[in-house]
Amino acid sequence: MITFSAFADEVSTDFREQLRFLQSQQIPYIELRFVNKKNSLDLTKDELAEAKMMLNDYGIKVSAIASPIGKVKIDEPFAPHFDRYKHAVELAHYFNTSLIRVFSYYSPSSGESIDNFRENVMERMAQKAIYLNNTTITMVHENESHIYGHSAENCVDIMKTVNSPNLKLAYDPANFVWGDDITDNVDRCWPLMQPYVVHVHIKDWKLGSKDIGTMPGEGDGQIEKLIKALADVKYSGFITMEPHLKGGGQFGGETTPEQYAEAIAKTRALCKKYCLIN
């Protein structure tokens, strides 16, 4: 059986409003990204304590630290970025979650392929994985356009090369549509990535749309087919809602409460159809 979570910062910048919305939709987990307009990695100790208290008050738990780790150019100094990553690990412990969402770096310039920097990418990903040795924390690498892991093949390359039990994949079907014009991701990408996937984002997209997603099951992300595929392998992790129905960009998205509620309802109906929930 799957567990629902959501990027509630799409609904409101106000953290309390995010939690109220999740509670109203009976979503028990939040993918922690922006809290009162600040990335969770940038919160002060007092702000972290307040966020933790509000989570407890509303009975909401954290599914993953939705960090921006790896969303920097590969030639930027690694030491300060690695320190920021270490802080993300601290937050995972603090909020009692075992997952940290990460990425795999941009090219130094738009005119050069990040594939040319494969060795550098692997070195950095390996260092982050080694840091997790003897912990219960897992990095989940999300496929996204313009980073090394933009393709299913490159995502699998990272998994096989780093070869760490603390590094797995987060699967986002819409990012294949938006970034690589792939409209059959479940046929082409899912079979390659599935052995490593422990986290799934539900975001649908229509081919050609620049920054606005579509209702789950109504775009080119093959959402229903993906949910059936999840049922076929008896997937039991998180399904995290990230609809981007009003707008989306490099570091987040926006969706009205009404749109979000509809997206949740449609996804729940599909999950119930394929027996992923009761």
Describe the structure.
The chain is 39% helix and 16% strand. The protein has ten helices and twelve strands. Strands 1-10-9-8-7-6 form a six-stranded parallel beta sheet. Strands 2-5 form a two-stranded parallel sheet. A two-stranded antiparallel sheet has the order 3-4. The longest helix has 17 residues, at 78-94. The model has no long low-confidence stretch (mean pLDDT 96).
Secondary structure elements and pairings:
Layout lengths: L2 E4 L8 H10 L4 E4 L1 E2 L2 E2 L5 H14 L2 E5 L12 H17 L4 E4 L15 H14 L6 E5 L9 H11 L4 E5 L1 H8 L4 H4 L1 H4 L3 E6 L20 H10 L5 E4 L5 E2 L4 E2 L2 H17 L5
Parallel strand pairs: 1-10, 2-5, 6-7, 7-8, 8-9, 9-10
Antiparallel strand pairs: 3-4, 11-12
Helix pairs in contact: 1-2
| First and last CA, distance | 8 Å
Percent helix among the residues?
Answer: 25-40%
* Lateral arrangement of strands in the main beta sheet: 1-10-9-8-7-6
Helix/strand order: EHEEEHEHEHEHEHHHEHEEEH
Strand content: 15-25%
Mass-distribution shape: globular
Largest sheet: 6 strands, parallel
Indicate the structural class.
Answer: alpha/beta
Q: Radius of gyration from the CA trace?
A: 18 Å
Q: If you average the pLDDT, what whole number results? A: 96
Which regions are unreliable across 5 or more consecutive residues at pLDDT < 50?
A: none
Number of strands: 12
Helix tally equals 10
